[in-house]
């Protein structure tokens, strides 16, 4: 395996997230009635191909998508993607809950966490919800395509399944903001040396009352990660 496999995994994950986001936008923004043209991923869907009445301006998703977005959630194509890695202690959380983050890097150095919600945002693709600066990182172990697992004294491997458990120490505990809308969030990790990586987290609505259910393929994400 080469570094391209890492980018392939991220591409598959982000591709599924983008598709799900597009579907959610259509479900919650378009209701039966006059045709409507909605641009998705810079592709404009002709009016006659949609059956909708109007934009539901009372929808929380509609209001959220009117917020200014940013493209800074994307990974820098020149960044080293193997030298900072992490995972969340929970797959999902609701506003007000805390999520432990487990992060390791090649060498101890400072890093930051930028938390983005993935959505339309006028074509930008994401919106920044939190930025945590000047965190002190630890070298708790890594896995790279060229070297495999190394420098992870806490790691254990199942001899039958080859499953690896990292047993890393908690690096940071993220509190989900009370005003964070439901959706897929990317926690972007950036070291002082400009190494980058993602942790994926789902924020759920505490009391959902909708006609649509989005099922995220979390097990598929695990199948394509480096560990």
Fold blueprint:
Layout: H1 3-29, E1 39-40, E2 43-44, H2 60-65, E3 84-88, E4 92-93, E5 98-105, E6 110-118, E7 126-136, E8 142-144, E9 148-150, E10 156-157, E11 164-165, E12 172-175, E13 183-191, E14 196-203, H3 218-224
Parallel strand pairs: 4-14
Antiparallel strand pairs: 1-2, 3-5, 5-12, 6-7, 6-13, 8-9, 10-11, 13-14
How would you describe this structure in keywords?
about 230 residues, alpha+beta, five-stranded mixed beta sheet, three-stranded antiparallel beta sheet, 3 helices, 14 strands
Describe the strand arrangement of the main beta sheet, using strand numbers: 4-14-13-6-7
Shape: globular
- SSE arrangement, N to C: HEEHEEEEEEEEEEEEH
Largest sheet: 5 strands, mixed
Terminal CA distance: 13 Å
Provide the low-confidence segments as ranges: 1-5, 23-45
Tell me the number of helical segments per DSSP (H or I, 4 or more residues long). 3
Assign a percent range to the helix content: 10-25%
Would you mind describing this structure in some detail?
By secondary structure, the protein is of the alpha+beta class. The chain is 18% helix and 31% strand. It has three helices and 14 strands. The protein has helices spanning 3-29, 60-65, 218-224, and strands at residues 39-40, 43-44, 84-88, 92-93, 98-105, 110-118, 126-136, 142-144, 148-150, 156-157, 164-165, 172-175, 183-191, 196-203. The strands form five sheets. A five-stranded mixed sheet has the order 4-14-13-6-7. A three-stranded antiparallel sheet has the order 3-5-12, with no helix packed on it. A hairpin with a 7-residue loop joins strand 6 and strand 7. The longest helix is centred in the first third of the chain and has 27 residues, at 3-29. The chain is globular. Mean pLDDT is 81; it is low at 1-5 and 23-45.
């Amino acid at each position: 395996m080469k570094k391209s496999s890492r980018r392939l995994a991220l591409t598959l994950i982000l591709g599924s997230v983008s598709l799900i986001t597009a579907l959610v936008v259509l479900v919650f923004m378009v209701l039966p009635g006059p045709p409507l043209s909605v641009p998705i991923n810079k592709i404009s869907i002709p009016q006659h191909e949609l059956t909708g009445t109007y934009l539901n301006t009372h929808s929380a998703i509609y209001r959220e998508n009117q917020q200014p977005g940013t493209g800074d959630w994307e990974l820098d194509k020149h960044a080293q993607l193997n030298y900072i890695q992490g995972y969340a202690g929970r797959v999902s959380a609701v506003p007000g809950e805390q999520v432990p983050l487990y992060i390791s890097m090649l060498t101890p150095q400072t890093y930051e966490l930028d938390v983005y919600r993935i959505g339309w945002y006028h074509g930008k693709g994401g919106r920044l919800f939190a930025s945590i600066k000047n965190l002190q990182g630890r070298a708790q172990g890594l896995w790279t395509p060229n070297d495999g697992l190394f420098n992870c004294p806490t790691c254990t491997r199942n001899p039958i399944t080859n499953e690896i458990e990292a047993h890393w120490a908690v690096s940071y505990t993220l509190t989900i903001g009370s005003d964070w809308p439901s959706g897929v969030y990317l926690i972007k990790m950036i070291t002082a040396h400009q190494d980058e990586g993602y942790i994926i987290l789902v924020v759920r609505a505490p009391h959902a009352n909708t006609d649509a259910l989005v099922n995220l393929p979390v097990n598929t994400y695990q199948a394509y990660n480096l560990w």
